[in-house]
Amino acid sequence: MNVRVICDFDGTIAEKDMIATIMREFVPDEAEPIIQAVYRGEKTVRAGVEEMFQLLPSARFEEIAAFARRNTVVRPGFQEFIHSCGQLGWKVAIVSGGFDFFVHPVIHSLSTPVDIYCNQLDLSGPRCRVKWGVLCDDACTGDCGLCKPSVMRQLADGQTRFIVVGDGVTDFKAALEADYVFARARLLDLVRDQALPASPFDTFYDIVDVIEDGGSNLYAHL
Ligand SMILES: [Zn+2]
Description:
Distance between the termini: 8 Å
Family: Belongs to the HAD-like hydrolase superfamily. SerB family.
Number of helices: 10
InterPro entries: HAD-like_SerB, HAD-like_sf, HAD_hydro_PyrdxlP_Pase-like, HAD_sf
Structural class: alpha/beta
Shape: globular
Radius of gyration: 17 Å
Strand content: 15-25%
GO cellular component, one term: cytoplasm
EC number: 3.1.3.-
Keywords: Hydrolase
Bound molecules: zinc ion
């Protein structure tokens, strides 16, 4: 059995949402209405994130990247989770709506290889411009920015089972296409509303407990 784990970054691997944390530090007054509009669904994630990074001068990038690295707190048990997946022969893909400058430093410290899908910044102009990793394919109308279900469709081969790990609204479309979900925060409410096969988690140790228990509910769905 081929199993692929699709794991979110912000609010999942990292305890906080780094894009919002950066914006609230560097451009709080201008960014807050955009953050709220995205949260309320009045603006798409793609449009909101592009607008917010346009607020930041490219010349401040090193300062922003250093701030992000200093303020990243990794959820407990992440290394053990990646190790357990590797032992089972499961491939892990970190699929993040965030950016390489704060995702890569966390992932590169791991001893087990993982795939990374995230975004980059174009710093060639006076202001930061978003270069999206994987935009929505024809099957998605969400204007997601980095589109998680589109990544899953690229990886699907008809035999692969998908496990999604996440916390937020951008993980929900991926969760709908998954065989099993590990969810916290807002995603947990959404998957429970839809009665999707799922387990809650607080730390990655909670997930390790489930995947190392061959009799767990997870294995009824793979
Ligand atoms: Zn999409």
